[in-house]
Design goal:
Blueprint: H1 2-11, H2 16-41, H3 44-58, H4 63-100, H5 102-109, H6 124-129, H7 137-181, H8 189-243, H9 246-285, H10 294-307, E1 313-315, E2 319-321, H11 323-345
Antiparallel strand pairs: 1-2
Helix pairs in contact: 1-2, 2-7, 2-8, 3-7, 3-8, 4-7, 4-9, 7-8, 7-9, 8-9, 8-11, 9-10, 9-11
C-alpha cells in the first residue's frame, strides 16, 4: 500500500487534496509498520508483562482484589476495542464520503473532467499506468479497503495490545496499594510481609520500565507524525471551509478526530500509570505504620521516597506523555491553526 501511494504522489504531484490524503495514509502506514516491527524485534518488555499477567490471573485473590483485577481488565478491553472500532469507522468514512458526494463535487469543480474511477486510497494514476481493466474495479476497490483496515489493525491494534497490558499493570499497582494499606502489626510476620510488598513494588517498577523501553521509540514516531498530520489536516480543514468543499472538510475532520483520540488514549494511559504509582506512597502513609515495629516503620520512608520519583511514559526517553502533554499539543496546534486561518482569510 505504501508503494502504491508513493507512486501515485510521484505520478500526480499537482493535486493538493490527493497529496494530503496520501500523506495521511503514508503516516498511518509508517506507524503501523514501525509498531509491528518494534514489537517483533524487541518483544522482551511485552513478553515479561504478558507472562506476569498470566501468573496474576492464575492466583487466588480475595473478593476486593478480584474486583480490582476485573475492573482493569475491562478498562483494557474497552480502550482496545474502542480505538480499533473507531479506526475502522474512520477508515470507512474516509473511503465512502468522497464517493457519496463525488458526482456533485465533480460537476461543480470541473465539468470537463474525465470519469475516472475513484479508489479508497489515491491510486488512479497507478491503475491507469498498469492498465487495470474496468471490470476489475470492484475487486481492486475491496482490496484497497481491506488494506486500509489492515493498516488500522497494525496501528491501532498494536495500541490496543499495549493499553491492555498497561491497564493490567495499573491494576496490580492498585492491589499493591491495598496490601500496603492493610499492613499492620502481626509480630514477626510484619517484617516478612513488608519485605514481600517491597519486592513486589520493585518488580512492578521493573515491568513499567521494560514497557517504557519497548514503547519509547514508537511514541516518539507517533507524536512526531501526529503533530505534522494534525497541523496539515487542520490547514486543509480551514481551506476547505473557506472554499465550501464539503468532502474535504469532512475528511479533514475525520483525520483530526482520529489522531486526537489516539493521542488522548496514550496521554490518559500515561497519566493513569503515573497516578497509580504515586498512589503507593499515599497508601503507605495512611497505613497503620505507627503500630508496626520501628525497624519496619523506618523502611517505610524509603518506599515513600521512591514513589516521589514519578513513573512516566516517555517518547524517545525525554518527552513525557501524559494529559499535560496532550493539552500542550492541542494548544500549540490551535495557535498554529489560528495564525494560518488569519493568513488564509486575509
Amino acid at each position: 500500500m505504501l508503494t502504491i501511494v508513493q507512486s501515485e504522489m510521484y505520478l500526480d504531484s499537482n493535486d493538493a487534496e490527493k497529496n494530503l490524503d496520501a500523506l495521511v495514509i503514508l503516516s498511518c502506514g509508517i506507524l503501523a509498520v514501525s509498531k509491528v516491527i518494534r514489537f517483533r524485534i524487541q518483544p522482551a518488555g511485552l513478553i515479561s508483562n504478558f507472562t506476569s499477567a498470566v501468573e496474576d490471573y492464575n492466583k487466588l485473590y480475595d473478593q476486593e482484589k478480584g474486583v480490582i483485577l476485573r475492573r482493569h481488565a475491562y478498562m483494557g478491553r474497552v480502550a482496545g476495542i474502542g480505538v480499533v472500532l473507531f479506526a475502522y469507522f474512520s477508515a470507512t468514512l474516509f473511503m465512502s464520503v468522497p464517493m457519496l458526494a463525488g458526482e456533485e463535487v465533480k460537476d461543480v469543480v470541473n465539468v470537463t473532467k474525465d470519469n475516472i474511477p475513484e479508489y479508497p486510497i489515491p491510486s488512479e494514476k497507478v491503475m491507469a499506468l498498469i492498465k487495470m481493466p474496468d471490470n476489475l474495479y470492484f475487486i481492486v476497490f475491496i482490496v484497497e479497503y481491506l488494506m486500509l483496515l489492515l493498516t488500522s489493525n497494525g496501528n491501532l491494534g498494536s495500541d490496543s495490545l499495549f493499553f491492555g497490558i498497561i491497564f493490567h499493570l495499573c491494576g496490580q499497582v492498585e492491589i499493591l496499594r491495598l496490601d500496603f494499606t492493610r499492613l499492620s502489626n502481626d509480630n514477626e510476620r510484619t517484617i516478612e510481609h513488608f519485605i514481600v510488598l517491597s519486592k513486589r513494588h520493585v518488580y512492578l517498577l521493573k515491568l513499567a520500565k521494560m514497557l517504557n523501553e519497548t514503547i519509547s521509540s514508537i511514541l516518539a514516531v507517533q507524536l512526531f507524525t501526529s503533530c505534522i498530520v494534525i497541523c496539515t489536516s487542520g490547514l486543509q480543514f480551514i481551506i476547505a471551509l473557506s472554499v465550501g468543499n464539503i468532502v474535504m472538510t469532512i475528511k479533514s475532520f475525520i483525520v483530526l478526530s482520529t489522531l486526537l483520540v489516539q493521542l488522548f488514549a496514550y496521554s490518559y494511559v500515561g497519566e493513569y500509570l503515573k497516578r497509580q504509582m504515586e498512589g503507593i506512597g499515599d497508601s503507605v502513609y495512611f497505613s497503620s505504620w505507627y503500630d508496626i515495629p520501628t525497624s519496619v516503620a523506618k523502611d517505610i520512608i524509603y518506599v515513600i521516597m521512591r514513589t516521589q520519583d514519578p513513573v512516566f511514559l516517555k517518547a524517545g526517553k525525554f518527552f513525557i506523555v501524559n494529559m499535560e502533554t496532550y493539552m500542550s499539543i492541542i494548544k500549540t496546534s490551535m495557535s498554529y491553526l489560528s495564525v494560518l486561518r488569519v493568513m488564509v482569510t486575509a
